[in-house]
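Email to the structure team, subject: Cohesin subunit SA model.

Hi all, the expression group asked for a predicted structure before they design truncation constructs. Nothing fancy, just the tokens so they can compare against earlier work. One-line instruction: predict Cohesin subunit SA, return tokens.
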Amino acid sequence: MIAAPELQTDFHYPQDTDTRFSSDTDFDDPDGRSAVQGKGKVKKGKKAPGEKGKGAGKGAGRLNGHHQENGMENVMLFEVVKLGKSAMQSVVDDWIESYKHDRDTALLDLINFFIQCSGCKGVVSGEMFRHMQNSEIIRKMTEEFDEDSGDYPLTMAGPQWKKFKSSFCEFIGVLVRQCQYSIIYDEYMMDTVISLLTGLSDSQVRAFRHTSTLAAMKLMTALVNVALNLSINMDNTQRQYEAERNKMIGKRANDRLELLLQKRKELQENQDEIENMMNAIFKGVFVHRYRDAIAEIRAICIEEIGVWMKMYSDAFLNDSYLKYVGWTLHDKQGEVRLKCLTALQGLYYNRELNAKLELFTSRFKDRIVSMTLDKEYDVAVQAIKLLTLVLHSSDEVLTAEDCESVYHLVYSAHRPVAVAAGEFLFKKLFSHRDIEDDSMPKRRGRQSLNANLIKTTVFFFLESELHEHAAYLVDSMWDCASELLKDWECMISLLLDEPLPGEEALTDRQETALIEIMLCTIRQAAECHPPVGRGTGKRVLTAKEKKTQLDDRTRMTELFAVALPPLLAKYSVDAEKVTNLLQLPQFFDLEIYTTGRLEKHLESLLRQIREIVEKHTDTDVLEACSKTYHALCSEEFTIFNRVDIARSQLLDELVDKFNRLLEDFLQEVKPMQYLLYSVMVPLKTAHDLSKWDLFTSNYKLLNTGIENGDMPEQIVIHALQCTHYVILWHLAKVSEGSCKKEDMVTLRKQMRAFCLMCQRYLASVNTAVKEQAFTILCDLLMIFSHQIISGGREILEPLVYTPEASLQSELLSFILDHVFIDQDEDNNSTGLDDEAGKIEALHKRRNLLAAYCKLIIYNVVEMNTGADIFKQYMRYYNDYGDIIKETMSKTRQIDKIQCAKTLILSLQQLFNEMLSDLGPGFDRSSSAFCGIKELARRFSLTFGLDQLKTREAIAMLHKDGIEFAFKEPNPQGEGYPPLNLAFLDILSEFSSKLMRQDKRTVHMYLERFMTFQMALQREDCWLPLISYRNSLQAGGDDDTMSVVSGISSRGSTIRNKKPKPVTGKRKLSEEESSSSSEVWLNRDQSMQTPVMMPSPHLTSTVMRDTKRLRPEDSYMGVYTMPPEQQQPQPPPQHHAPPQTPQPHHHQTPLDYNRRGSGLMEDDEEPIVEDVMMSSEGRIEDLNEGMDFDTMDIDLPASKNRRERSELKPDFFDPASIMDESVRTTHFLGYDAFQR
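Reply from the structure team: attached below.
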């Protein structure tokens, strides 16, 4: 029991072996302060000198003589475990043989194995092993790490490395299992391994800490298994000893008693040693690492302690160890919280352990209940499952409030959460169901055992007050209670049969809920997929699921084919019940009507539907009848003829009645209300009504409504819808290709006449009528646009309809008047019901806007009409931002240049509106002007980072902007700035999107509009021109120039230190593009605008690139303060130093946050910038959305930080500006670190 003195270690086992495990016994020490914090020396004895010399000498000779061979052996052990092709037991057996032969060499191989598994390239030599302490070895190995890569085997991607982790853990478990009878007690191998792993687990290198913690925890698990076996053997030995001692003296075997005593003593000694090892690992590794900064390490610790408590509950399942799991339930990483819950599930699953969990349950039950609402869905699912196990173990633990907090989760949109909550609900409400006696005949209908359970389900559904979510409730309980939910015979009996004596009948509200639940169960059984909003889509059914689906459809059809007519007859006057019942035939197997000889029940069903159509005027009921006819009129079934005849007869009667009443109405024989109820059915149906020629009748009705102006809105709306359907059915027949030329001409005339009619109704005083006319017009314009001839349908070319300018104008006016309005204008009421109404109204307005935007995207209306839409982007961002942004994206894909012209037109419109409101002398710090600048910044971000793709569009945008800025001369004379000159301040937001050579071209184009006197002006009113010129003259230095504040953006951008080599292709493209960029410059040679005269220091930006801007020419020197904030002092154009600009109190925050937004742009569309609602306080809003208080802070060293410190000074080097081959790169991360 002696260890070699040459092995210097930093760790020793605790000497106290009187207690099983030295640990705390309460829940009030979350930091583990009472645990042993330091690492001492391993308890070791001394070997005999001869033994020491023999072992050490042999090992040293081999190591010194075959160092490379030893290294290869180590690599081989690591490679064998990594490949995982060899049986792990044979690998361990080979190592044990080498250990018995030369334990120092074998142990050195094992040490290097752990080092290699951490991803370290270093190798521990025999000299280091004998003469260096663990801390020195670890420090030496740390120097061998590859700093360029943060990956190591446990974190590497790929199937090989995923398998490595399991092989690594298996190796440790097999090693302990194979050594459990002798080697682990030699106080050499385990002492060395535990000491090494403890030291590595305390390293600041993540790879060492992670790998050693996993190894130590798996080693502990293996030792717990050994301790458990020792405990079982001790108990068996003790029983054998007691049995032998209780024998009569004559039959007692004293030799056996001595052997049993000796065996028990040996087992006790072994168990004490194992306990010392486990205490060393627990206090040296677990107590520190369960609070590690890395979530993966914390998760490993919690996962393994759960294994220990489950495997050896007598020793570990107590409050001293449970407290660590309880504390970690509050971990900020979902991965760790998940491990806590799965560990506890293994404990609560065993009812025999419930007594030991009582204190823990009472202490941490509230936390577990709150975790059902965890932001991580996986954690919430496991929390609900854990509560289900707690409920299964005892009904008294969870209060009614605890259960109710889980009940409502059955309506969750996340299906795993809902299913787990459904299982909890089923266990709680239906766990006390009676067991049916097999000897008694099986009861059916409302006398069955499921009757009360179905009633309970109905009661729960009504009490939850989420009536529209019955499908979610059914789906949540489908996996655990499908047998109950598919007891349709019992449901039918509860609805049709009279209640039993003493039984309380269902109320009307309960019957409505039961019918809704019954419909949802039938839909779930027939479609076999979750309801809309829950699940990613339809999945492929297995053969067993398909068979179950067919069986369920057959059974439901047989039951409801007979029961549906009586149900419709009983509830024929109740619109809500009838609407749900009429949906049932959509899920039938209609062939059973024929094979099952159920034709008489079909006739009964058709009679009931006809009566319902005659009785009801409710839209939902009539639509349900229409869908039922559509479902039954399937030509593939033999019942088609019978149903089609019934449907045609019904339509004949309704159309005849409609025509008669229409004639009476036109002759003013009958009041309008009689026509209203009779006309709704034929107008709402979506069946083919072309053979009844309803277009003429409806057109007369609509024309009369225009002339008289007093027709009820419901009649007009349904007449518009019916006419729309008639035209679409006519188009469907024409598209088949078998129509006559006369049919094509008739359709063309009807379509154009109807479009004119809808256009006339856009001027109606009734909002609902105008909205219906607008929607139909947008649909017709889309359908009959140039897209109609695509796909080889050139025959339909005569039907193409292009809207006239007047119609386009009216459509746009409708959008501006009815969509871009405030909520208060649309609905001034408040309250819960009114809030729902506001949401519905907003949804309707969004649909209207989307319908018009589709016309823009598909080039049905002129793209420039989108300017009136785009300019609302900022003001109505919350309501329509996503629609407008998508429209901009699609239009850019169609025509980049026209899209850019539309964007600049929208800014010009806003600028003109501002001028009309504020006058020419407006303050550029006003909210209106800042809002236009912010909108321009948003537009600029949508162009992305690829300047080549948007080059021509950006150039055209600047051209239009410059022309607009100089369009209106100042009536006071040429010495005063043009009226629109401030627009250049807005236009400068797009300067960063120009390529370097394009900036020169735009600057030359700008000079054509300038006079010599303009270039010399430095007054405040000329600041927009000066700042815009500066943004163009910045060349490649600063592509993110902004003139919102008086602070130059040079300090917040960075230049790449390493210039990229410019290929010949790039040079060629730049030369070509530079020459081509002159094209639009020379388009307007005849413009009557003053041309900039040559100036030695302003004619060329190339000359200015070779030196630093002078203070009097710099941006900061000329844009310091607004006039109202300046102190009485000389004009600042030549005296204000660029180093100390006066802050602009209104605009500086805007510029500060603007850059924070610009950091997040991507190649095509901005991401984060659309999240920000205003220009003020965006940084604070972003910070509020981020959780900086996290334990996972151990980030790998970043080279970027070093690069930043190196690159920053070079940006101000004028020599770097002269290099034309260097393409400026905007380092996106720099601004964030500067702030």
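The chain is about 60% helix and 0% strand. The longest strand covers residues 2-3. Ping us if the truncation boundaries need rechecking.
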